[in-house]
DNA sequence: CCATGAACCTGGTCGC
DNA sequence: TGCGACCAGGTTCATG
């Protein structure tokens, strides 16, 4: 389900309900949800401790205690929200009881979502690339990255080890805005397009966060409200429609293993 | 190092 | 209505 803006939206929606509170108990409904630790370890390590911070890193939700963290990845269909009673929904992977009486619900239809426990956030930071909204990210850095590799640009932008947070929706949108064909080899992309791409990545993600993310199928947060950025999508899942810039019919094709949308007129491979 | 396809799961949609 | 095929916002692993 979620890319950077959707995860950011979730973090913002649960932060106030967690900070300075404590976990009291956890009810695991789908055992595999705990990726690298057990229910006992959860109870021994994470219960009755004050939550210091709730943040996003890439597509991870970070719940920080002292140095150690509970990291949650929603994968495709994970949802994380509060409820003041135990819901009867079908696909609940875990329920965490909070000391204020609320329950933090992890609901996940496809069951790909996972909880991770790490002694510090370094482990994640070391394997994740730069945050696209940080100061670290700019046209010059992006130029260095793209020109130092010879990879299909779509695959490169989806690779979380390099730039962390983009997913299928926003990569398609940003490549369209920058007039870059998704199959272009990264080191062949002209500097001017990369400069634009850097700006488009930032502005697109920021606009989407403002709109509380994109609802493609069923992304919801809080009480089932959904993100409004869907209204601002230009290319994603618009195959067969005219390109908003040139009216050419938008194409869908598999690139880097993912359904990929682009305008064959605006986005031409440059050699 | 990189591309590809499968695997992990469930449900929705489309064609017949 | 039913059934099979295919697709889905993500990531990881094996293979060539």
The ordered H/E elements are HEHEEEEEEEHHHHHEEEE
Outline type: elongated
Report low-confidence residues grouped into runs of 5 or more: none
Total helix count?
A: 7
**Major sheet attributes:** 4 strands, antiparallel
Task: Describe it.
It is built from 7 helices and 12 strands. It is an alpha+beta fold and 271 residues long. Strand 11 (251-255) and strand 12 form a beta hairpin. The structure holds a DNA duplex (16 and 16 nucleotides).
Secondary structure layout:
Elements (H helix, E strand, L loop, with lengths): L3 H15 L4 E6 L10 H8 L6 E5 L2 E5 L4 E5 L4 E6 L8 E7 L4 E6 L5 E5 L3 H6 L11 H9 L5 H6 L9 H10 L13 H20 L9 E2 L3 E2 L24 E5 L2 E5 L9
Antiparallel strand pairs: 1-6, 2-3, 3-4, 4-8, 5-7, 6-7, 9-10, 11-12
Helix pairs in contact: 1-7, 4-7, 6-7
The chain binds a DNA duplex (16 and 16 nucleotides) through α6.
């Amino acid at each position: 389900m979620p890319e950077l803006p959707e995860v950011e939206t979730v973090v913002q929606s649960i932060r106030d309900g967690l900070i300075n509170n404590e976990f009291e108990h956890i009810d695991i409904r789908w055992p595999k949800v705990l990726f690298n630790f057990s229910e006992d370890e959860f109870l021994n390590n994470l219960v009755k401790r004050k939550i210091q911070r709730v943040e996003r890193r890439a597509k991870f939700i970070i719940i920080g205690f002292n140095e150690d963290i509970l990291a949650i990845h929603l994968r495709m269909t994970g949802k994380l929200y509060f409820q003041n009673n135990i819901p009867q929904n079908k696909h609940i992977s875990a329920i965490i009881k909070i000391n204020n009486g609320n329950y933090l619900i992890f609901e996940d239809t496809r069951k790909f979502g996972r909880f991770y426990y790490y002694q510090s956030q370094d482990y994640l930071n070391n394997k994740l690339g730069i945050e696209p909204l940080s100061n670290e990210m700019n046209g010059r850095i992006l130029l260095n990255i793209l020109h130092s590799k010879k990879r299909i640009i779509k695959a490169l932008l989806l690779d979380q080890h390099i730039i962390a947070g983009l997913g299928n929706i926003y990569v398609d949108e940003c490549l369209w805005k920058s007039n870059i064909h998704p199959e272009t080899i990264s080191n062949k992309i002209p500097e001017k397009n990369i400069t634009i791409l850097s700006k488009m990545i930032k502005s697109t993600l920021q606009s989407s966060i403002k709109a509380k993310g994109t609802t493609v199928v069923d992304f919801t947060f809080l009480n089932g409200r959904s993100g409004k950025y869907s209204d601002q999508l230009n290319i994603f899942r618009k195959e067969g429609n005219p390109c908003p810039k040139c009216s050419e019919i938008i194409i869908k094709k598999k690139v880097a293993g993912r359904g990929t949308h682009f305008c064959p007129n605006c986005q031409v491979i440059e050699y």
